[in-house]
Amino acid sequence: MSHHIVEFKDVFFRYPDGTQALGGINFRITHGESVGVVGANGAGKSTLLQHMNGYLMPASGTVTIGDLRLTKRTRQEIRRKVGIVFQNPDDQLFMPTVFDDVAFGPLNLGMDEASVRERVNKALCMVNSLALRDKPPHHLSCGQKSAVAIAAVMAMEPDILAMDEPAANLDPKSRRSLITLLKTFKHSKIIASHDLDLILDVCGRCIVIGDGVVVADGPSSEILSDRALLEENSLELPLSLQRR
Amino acid sequence: MHMADALLSPAVGTTLWAGSVAAGGYASMKLKERIDDRTIPLMGVLGAFIFAVQMVNFTIPGTGSSGHLGGGMILAILLGSHAAFLVMASVLTVQALFFADGGLLALGCNIWNLGVTPCYLVYPFIYKSMVGGSKNPGRILVVSIVSVVAALQLGAFSVVMETLLSGKSELPFSAFVLMMQPIHLAIGIVEGFVTAGVINYVRSARPEILESMAASRPIGREVSLKKVLATFALLAVITGGVLSWFASTHPDGLEWSIEKVTGKGELPQHENGVAAVFKGFQEKTAFLPDYGFKPAENELKKEKEAPPPWPGIEAGTSVAGIIGAAIVLGMIVLIGMGIRVVGRRQI
Amino acid sequence: MTFDEKYFDIGRLDRLSYGETFVHRLDPRAKVIGTMLFLLTVVSFSKYEIAALAPFFLYPMLLVTVGEIPVRFIIKKMIVVSPFAIFIGIFNPILDTRTAAVILGVSVSTGWVSFLSILLKFTLTISVALLLIATTSFSGVCHALRRLGFPALFVSQLLFLYRYLFVLMEETMRIIRARDMRSFGKRGTGLRVFVRLIGILFLRTVDRAERIYYAMLSRGFAGDMPALKRSRMVLRDLAYLSVMIACLWVFRFFPITEGIGRRVQELLR
């Protein structure tokens, strides 16, 4: 099952204003792995995620998804394989009703009406939100919005799921149900977050990023209990590990 | 100032609707030729931005009163004529639906006054030709004020013309113009100041945004004078056609405006005639045993044949009208209450 | 109205439009066409017509009751937009003082008649427009426009506008609150602050548009906004439209009100 891998090799990226965001990123994620990406504000987490489906193209180095190398030509193809869930669900839910929004991806894949409906229902069931089908996004609560945003991505049946701060703005209960939900997914998952407890709960592996390079990479339980490493990167021990 | 349905005649309303729809079709066609994909969400979100900003009041310096933004010029400067026009039309549509600003029939007029005017007349011929490629904040300020004032004056003048042509208001042309234009002068100066302020602020804070927006517009000169003149000629023909069609098939709506233009020649005659007509009417009713719709219908026909006295308002008719209206409205209210009661029971 | 009031007002109207009644379920196209015909018929009456307008109140009344719309809310919204029509109309009684009729010894001028006519038309047209959106979701109206032949581009960005209306109003409200909290009375509400404020809001809006575009790309957007057919004109909609047209025709060309009035007069005599 080598076709669900994600590989970054010496990836460099510089924004037009001159900020160096990625300075030689290297890692490899294999099929079915759950990986947390942590680091200080501005360390390059979001930039990294934006490389996963070709919204940004590396200045040098290569990004490989499955057996495809990311280029302008393979970009469309790669976007079908990698589903990205954004930090702010308002930016992601851009259609006037939940149904339209979840159907947006499948319709772009060129599916016929009946299978689109089936996909939408399936995706909404997966996140327990079928009842919200005909509502407009602006009538939803934050938790509902982020559930629907996940459904919208899942409706495309991606091989790899990438998420940027999935639990920001969620109340504790919604956060808990999100974690339960994430644990049920069999996909490869890459989650960028400051919520270290969530990462500890969901991800077996953790990558620490600082100033655009990989600072540490290993099992979450080891990395997230390394107080010195975490504090160096403006992070702190997960609350669940702080009890002595 | 939004035009209102209640002041419109069907002829004027439909003509301006036709004009606005034509402009919308033209803008969509032009944009489709060469549009950057990212422009569609950008247009929509900027529309929401203009809508939200219009809800904010600010104090007009020196007067203590407050005003709010129109937004047509800001959009035209940022997005170019075509995209700006479509956004403006959308903003006005949402306002007509959610705030009932003006109403749906008057929406055609409002899109014309507040959309076509700034985006297709003022922006290409005043703003663009005067600013050129200049980035001088002072120059942008002056030209913005001139442009917005011009757009608002034209818009206000259109409201006057639309109202007069519809003929529902008694206001004479000169008084109406004197009332509308100065108010809009003050508003225009303030809005011009705000427009320039925003453009200059964006240019200093994030110059690349203006550049990328300019780059995503359709290439080439956006609007040529020839095309605009041709469009106007075409619209004039359509207007004439629609007006004459209405005049022939549907005299009521236009009657009064035409009478206004030609002078109220027949007036004094009627004043004397009212009593006589009333008398004749009574005689007539006395002969007819049945007062159902038939006499009323006869009377309607009579009114249509001969130039009517004041339709529907000589004394006999008015009393019947008042009684009838009270009964009809009473019935409507009863029906409504009935439905409410039944509806509650079902729940 | 203050910003907050307007904001909650729109929100309330929007919520009403997601109701589940008979009128809500009608095809949006039928309602849009019906409403436009209604408006045209109402404004086609001469400026001295009053009595014949009365039966037209049946339609807004039916929408309010069958659609379960709070009447007071609609009336309040109508009053807010009334000034322009009233302002222009009030000149009629001042400028046009010819006697139209003498009723019970009181002489009524034609100006008052035409002013009243304007007010009635205002009430009818505005209430029906508000009730259209209170009984039809905005996205429904957009899809109706699309299928009535409006350009796809126009409709797509209109849908975006609607979707982000509430998001941006909230954002604006946050900025306004921050301004008011620190402006202590009048200072800070001036033009300069206002300009800066919209400037910032504008930049945020552009950034948001960029993020939305990214989200669209991530889900396979390639230039065309896909849309599923959602509703079909069924018998119910056609029936609604035919009844509507029949009623409009009768109300327009037969003086029902006057007829009823005469008959009652006759009975009283």
Structural features, described:
The complex is a heterotrimer of chains A (244), B (347) and C (269). Chain A is α/β, with parallel strands linked by helices and 244 residues long. In chain A, 37% of the residues lie in helices and 24% in strands. Chain A has one domain: 3-Layer(aba) Sandwich (Rossmann fold). Chain A contains eleven helices and ten strands. The N and C termini of chain A lie far apart (42 Å). The model of chain A has no long low-confidence stretch (mean pLDDT 87). Chain B has two domains: 5-255, Arp2/3 complex 21 kDa subunit ARPC3 (Orthogonal Bundle), CATH 1.10.1760.20; 269-346, no CATH class. Chain B has 347 residues and is mainly alpha-helical. Helix content of chain C is 72%, strand content 3%. In chain C, helix 4 runs parallel beside helix 8 (110-135) and helix 9 (138-147) runs antiparallel to helix 10. Chains in contact: A-C, B-C. At the B-C interface, helix 1, helix 2, strand 1, helix 4 and helix 7 of B face helix 1, helix 3, helix 4, helix 5 and helix 6 of C.
Helix share of residues of chain B?
A: over 70%
Mean pLDDT of chain A: 87
Q: State the CATH class of chain A.
A: Alpha Beta
Our Rg estimate of chain B from Cα atoms comes to 26 Å
Structural class of chain A: alpha/beta
Strand-helix topology:
The complex is a heterotrimer of chains A (244), B (347) and C (269).
Chain A: E1 6-14, E2 20-29, E3 34-38, H1 45-52, E4 60-65, E5 68-69, H2 75-81, E6 82-85, H3 89-92, H4 98-108, H5 113-126, H6 142-154, E7 160-164, H7 172-184, E8 188-192, H8 196-202, E9 205-210, E10 213-219, H9 220-223, H10 227-232, H11 239-242
Parallel strand pairs in A: 3-8, 3-9, 6-7, 7-8
Antiparallel strand pairs in A: 1-2, 1-4, 4-5, 9-10
Chain B: H1 10-33, H2 39-54, E1 58-59, E2 66-67, H3 72-79, H4 81-98, H5 107-131, H6 137-166, H7 173-205, H8 207-215, H9 225-249, H10 251-262, H11 267-287, H12 293-305, H13 315-346
Antiparallel strand pairs in B: 1-2
Helix pairs in contact in B: 1-4, 1-5, 1-9, 2-4, 3-4, 3-5, 3-7, 4-5, 5-6, 6-7, 7-8, 9-10
Chain C: H1 3-16, H2 22-25, H3 28-43, H4 58-66, H5 71-81, H6 83-89, H7 91-95, E1 99-103, E2 106-109, H8 110-135, H9 138-147, H10 152-183, H11 191-218, H12 235-253, H13 256-268
Antiparallel strand pairs in C: 1-2
Helix pairs in contact in C: 1-8, 1-10, 3-8, 3-9, 3-12, 4-8, 5-8, 9-10
